[in-house]
What does this fold into?
Amino acid sequence: MALKLLAFAAPLLLALPAQAQAPLAAQGCLGCHGPNGAGQAPVPALTGRPAAETEALMKAFRANERPATIMGRIARGYTDAEIAAVAAHFAAQR
Ligand code: HEC
It folds into this structure.
């Protein structure tokens, strides 16, 4: 029984899309910024962007220092540590 379950579940696990591997804090970005954060017009790409740049933009959105339709509200839901993790994640994506 357990073996049967494993045989059934293993291919499913291997088939998980790449975005399932993004850290939890980055999952919430993919719906708008596209699979892997590669961007989907008109929402800009996050993929490959230097971490320091993403961090600075997120903090500017959070502080209401950068005009935004939606990012100001989103950024306010993220701590400094989460922003750093998300920025590092997207910087490492190709
Ligand atoms: C509801 C859709 C939505 C979600 C979710 C979202 N974004 Fe955005 N993002 C946008 C839009 C739209 C813009 C353009 C600025 C604006 O109008 O708010 C943007 C702009 C940005 C920019 C500025 C890019 C540039 O070149 O100006 C960064 C950085 C960014 N988002 C990061 C993130 C991160 C990191 C997450 C996840 C924590 C995220 N966004 C989640 C829609 C979204």
Notes: The chain has one domain: 24-91.
